[in-house]
Amino acid sequence: MTQEEAIISAFEIMGGEKRPKEIEAWVIHHLSGYNWKDYRTVMADMTMPNMAVIQIHTEGVLFLQERGLEYIDS
């Protein structure tokens, strides 16, 4: 299980808006063996604006690959 999957599980079961510390406490209590360090950054990365950037980036890379070009990360 990834940290993102654990966070989604916590939200689905707990419902509503939760703070990173609440999510972390739930994961530690209910998913023994999983103990990630940083929940704030991962939760922020999972928000819609960040996901939109990832989607746009992915589409751009695919666009280049379809044309036989390579994406080079600087």
Q: Decide which structural class fits the backbone.
A: mainly alpha
Q: Main sheet?
A: none
pLDDT below 50 for ≥5 consecutive residues: which ranges? none
* Oligomeric state, counting identical vs distinct chains: single chain
Number of strands: 0
Helix content: 55-70%
What is the rounded Rg? 16 Å
User: SSE order in H/E notation?
Assistant: HHHH
Shape: elongated
Tell me the fraction of residues in β-strands, as a range: under 5%
- Cα end-to-end separation: 31 Å
Question: What's the pLDDT, averaged over the residues?
Answer: 81
Separate helix tally: 4
Question: What's a quick, concise take on this entry?
Answer:
The chain has four helices and no strands.
Could you please describe the fold and organization of this structure?
By secondary structure, the protein is an all-alpha fold. The chain has four helices and no strands. It has helices at residues 3-14, 20-30, 39-45, 48-66. Helix 1 packs across helix 2 (20-30). It is elongated, with a radius of gyration of 16 Å.
